[in-house]
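@channel sequence for tomorrow's demo:
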Amino acid sequence: MKPETRSFYQESTQRVVDQIATGLDQALDLEDLAAGACLSPFHFHRVFRGMVGETPVELLRRLRLERAAWQLGHTDRAVTEIAFDAGYETHEAFTRAFRTNYNASPSGFRRRKFRRVELPAACGVHFDPAGRVPSFIPRDSGGRTMQVEIKEKPELRAAAVGHVGPYNQIGEAFGRLDAIVRPAGLLKPETQMIAIYHDDPESTPADQLRSDAAVTVSRDDAVPKGLSEQRVPAGRYACTTHVGPYEKLGDAWARFMGEWLPASGHRIGDGVSYEVYLNSPMNEPDKQKLKTEMCVPIVS
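structure tokens (generated this afternoon):
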């Protein structure tokens, strides 16, 4: 491992943590935060969540709620004012969120003799009325010891169906893809089924997220009508295989990008990250045995 590389990711993430913790009344501009961390928005989201254990939005929401709890215990401000400062548009929404996290209504919490303001957070960053921000504790859930292989990947030419919407609904696009490529004879022994994700789900509304469900094709294959041609650049990629349900892929990406990557000495390169489905529910009904290769470009 190169210490300076790990330091780069940790320092970049700390700068963003500091910015959020000292600007609780500011709206988050996730693209600006990513630029400040010297990462693309897409990669920034995965690195930050992996290192901190929360997304920037989740961190902001928790710190605002902790501040609200502190204000309830140390000021006589009206609950409605505190709710608005915490980012809630109505007293009712604030009360629901507060009760879920503190097991008491705001008024009930204010009446308590002993009040614990801090909510559970593995990163160790909490609201401080003096404005101090501690160094966050990098998440360590075993990601640093993931089995990762550095591969020189060739360029991939793919026939794709575009999907716009929540990433977990890309299965519908794969259904449309299969209905076209199977009759066209494009499903060969060497064919790979891949998914390419283009947008950061933190900064892009779920109904506007862009992704591609695709199969690899040779240079001689014609791309059937109704599909688009996509190219994944050749280059050096860090690759690891997730075994288990697709629902757990988000957590696997967080460990990969937020734990393994900073400890590895490697830096993210230009290009897209993508998934290769080594089997599928069509031939492996046991979700615990589904295998997905996750690939991220790294600097040579």
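heads up for whoever presents: The radius of gyration is 22 Å.
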